[in-house]
Amino acid sequence: MATPPSKAGTKGVPREHRRLQMLDAATEEFGTRGYAAASLPSIAARVGVTKTLLHQYVGTKEDLYLACLVPVGDRLLDTIRAAMGPDGTAPHTPLRVLHSIFTALEGRREAWFVLYDTTLPPGGEAARRAAGYWAAIDRLAAGGTAELLRATGSTDPLDADALKYVWRDLVATLVRWWVKHPEQTPEAMTQRCARLFAAAAGLTSDGRSG
Amino acid sequence: MATPPSKAGTKGVPREHRRLQMLDAATEEFGTRGYAAASLPSIAARVGVTKTLLHQYVGTKEDLYLACLVPVGDRLLDTIRAAMGPDGTAPHTPLRVLHSIFTALEGRREAWFVLYDTTLPPGGEAARRAAGYWAAIDRLAAGGTAELLRATGSTDPLDADALKYVWRDLVATLVRWWVKHPEQTPEAMTQRCARLFAAAAGLTSDGRSG
DNA sequence: GCGTGAATTTACCTAGCGGTAAATTACCTA
DNA sequence: TAGGTAATTTACCGCTAGGTAAATTCACGC
Q1: How many A-B residue pairs are in contact by the CB < 8 A criterion?
Q2: Tens of pLDDT, residues A169-210
Q3: How far apart are CA A152 and CA B199, in angstroms?
Q4: Distance, Å, B39 CA → C17 C1'
Q5: CATH number of domain containing B50
Q6: Is residue B192 within 8 Å of residue A186, measured between CB atoms?
């Protein structure tokens, strides 16, 4: 009783398993709170483990973030690439892309926001890697958005930039809504998006009704 | 030399002026960094003053946020209400609303993100007040989005919720793009939005081109 | 010229975070 | 059953943030 009993010692959880637990918990935390607001103690608590163990397994906070970012980024990049087809002009591309994204994210939906985290320490490796993924995805999206603009006769490069921006954030918005409605399947989401797109077509007319 | 010279004492800045400086700096900081990442020392530094003075003028961090939120919220709510017309069915409502928002934000564009801050301490007064503004604005927007959906035959309430969500975030996205392009006037932005809306109409068709 | 009040700072407290070194416990093998 | 090693914790450091009490200096009216 003089010395309070220490809880140290192994719990029998093998190293690889623990590591995966940590990455999963961290992905959830980074995705919901954002890098800046995410805290290592909180992530450790999710796993039921000490902050120190987290450090020993995955290093610094930025290392941990990178370990979460890379698989998510690779996965999404692959799936979008596949959905766009070899020439990037497959039919119904936007919905195909959305469906592929929803499918890839199922099981850890917040992972999207790990990729598009705006609170990364500027100038760091994490920000650079994330920016790399953005650029790659934007390059894919650029084809589609340019297509849309050309159809309307606009040649303004700022229009193209803004549309790229809007599309990217639109996806984020849809995923965010999805996160708040866990019972929605990827297929249901895709169909909903199709309906929303149809509704959006009415934006160019006025709001009158009979 | 025994005692280091103190920089204390008045700088001759009248109380009201200082207060306005502080609110302006805080609005910029909250708007760009978000509540959680914003720091009182940093805000104080913008004004060229000590953290302590900030406290004495505007109280706690949440008080400061509220003092920034209320004028922004009131202003935006008023301008949107006016743009939608008495019955909420004025012609070209979406563009009219956007134009009014851009105009109201000119001079402190980031203020939009003070209103839609997602990092507020949950359960606090700040979150409650902000939610109040969202609800009021959403109520205004609900008419317009419902209109769009009805035109396409959808009656799913979740569709309506998602579309409301998308519209709200779309505005945020456009403002964010605008913040990054300071030379763009509110009128130029409105016209750009009109072109983007036209391009978005192409979303329902496939991505093929000739 | 001189106080008196307004404007401002210095000094300090507490709490939480990222991060590290050292100690502690449990499992496995011989 | 003794010892090594893998898994884990305790205890700590430095820093920054939010927040408060007390001291300090300037400006202005008399």
Answers
A1: 153
A2: 999 999 999 999 999 999 999 999 999 999 998 877 644 433
A3: 6
A4: 15
A5: 1.10.10.60
A6: no
B126: tokens are 């700040």
Statement: residue B140 has pLDDT above 50: yes
Same domain, A46 and A91: no
A160, pLDDT greater than 50? yes
Who has greater pLDDT, B148 or B177?
Answer: B177
Cβ–Cβ gap B151/A202 under 8 Å: yes
A53 and A3 housed in the same domain: yes
Q: Where are the alpha helices (DSSP H) in B60-156?
A: 61-84, 93-105, 111-115, 125-152
Half-sphere exposure of residue B93, counting CA atoms within 13 Å on the CB side? 24
Query: Is pTM beyond 0.85 here?
Result: yes
Determine the residue of chain B that is closest to A155 in CA distance. B195
Tokens representing residue A158 in the block: 């700022």
B182 C-beta less than 7 Å away from strand D: no
Residue that finishes a domain, picked among B59, B83, B104 = B59
The mean pLDDT of B192-208, rounded to a whole number, is 80
Chain A residue numbers touching B197 (CB-CB < 8 A): 203-204
pLDDT over threshold 50, residue B208 = no
Residues B168 and B194 in one domain: yes
What is the residue range of A139's domain? 68-202
- The pair of three-digit structure tokens given for residue B192, joined into one six-digit string: 């750009």
**Interatomic CA distance for residues B8 and A188, integer angstroms:** 64
d(CA B190, CA B22) in angstroms, rounded, equals 31
Contact B108, B199 (CB under 8 A): no
Question: Which chain B residue is nearest to residue A96, measuring alpha carbons?
Answer: B206
